[in-house]
Design brief:
Low-confidence stretches: 1-13
Mean pLDDT: 89
Number of strands: 2
Distance between the termini: 49 Å
Helix content: over 70%
Shape: globular
Order of helices and strands: HHHHHHHHHEHHHEH
Length: 246
């Protein structure tokens, strides 16, 4: 793509029509978020758009990192480009069109195709909110990178486990604890009635709550993860009970 074409894309995205904006934040969001879409609708007005944009970006990153037809190295490379784009260091159009085309879900294909527009929404929201969104997406993608590198050499015949409870705690914080912190900061910022909150204490509780939800996910998904060669129960915990990942 030449420079003029890139500038044309930038101008088109900058002037995103309100109808397209509404479509992305409602119809497209609903198509890839299922129940979470209902939760966003009941948030205080000022929180809805930054949370929706954060979710769409996180879901796009998750789609990239979970693309089954790509190698771990390819997923990591695309994820790196995505991270740069969310931080304003690269253009989302550098992600190949073929990445969207190979997604089995129609909603995920559309989301990746609309990624430049989602990034334009990020640029258009209140600066403090955008900073929170960028921070949480950066942390979440670190968690995805952790997952891809930790389980980079697995197959259905070899099960890999995390090494320690500290590694499990780090993983849970990267993929969920940070979301609790994000919601806490956003809620305090947009809800005058929460001005009396001890921000540090509530942020800590938000992180713990996020980690607890991720631990629930780990237990729920344990059979499927084991079949795919992934064990999030640490070796140290397994050793204490005489078990192995297999």
């Amino acid at each position: 793509m030449n420079v003029d074409a890139q500038n044309d894309d930038a101008n088109t995205i900058a002037s995103l029509p309100n109808s397209r904006r509404r479509y992305i934040l409602t119809t497209l969001l609903k198509g890839v978020s299922r129940a979470f879409y209902l939760s966003i609708r009941v948030l205080p007005t000022g929180m809805r758009e930054p949370v929706a944009v954060a979710y769409l970006l996180a879901r796009a990153a998750d789609t990239i990192s979970d693309t089954p037809t790509l190698s771990h190295a390819q997923r990591l490379a695309h994820l790196c480009e995505f991270r740069k784009a969310t931080q304003g260091q690269a253009s989302a159009v550098r992600l190949p069109c073929s990445l969207a085309e190979i997604q089995p879900s129609a909603g995920e294909r559309e989301l990746l195709q609309a990624l430049p527009e989602v990034l334009s929404l990020l640029d258009s929201i209140v600066a403090d909110d955008a900073k929170l969104v960028r921070a949480v997406v950066l942390t979440l993608t670190r968690g995805m990178r952790f997952d891809l590198t930790t389980f980079s050499r697995i197959d259905r015949e070899t099960t890999v486990a995390l090494n320690s409870t500290e590694q499990l705690d780090e993983y849970c914080n990267l993929v969920a604890g940070c979301v609790g912190e994000f919601f806490t900061d956003l809620a305090i910022s947009h809800t005058p009635a929460l001005a009396h909150w001890d921000a540090h204490e509530m942020r800590s509780l938000g992180v713990r709550f996020g980690k607890a939800l991720q631990m629930t996910n780990i237990l729920r998904d344990l059979p499927r993860d084991l079949r795919n060669g992934r064990c999030y129960i640490p070796k140290s915990a397994l050793d204490s009970t005489g078990l192995t990942p297999v």
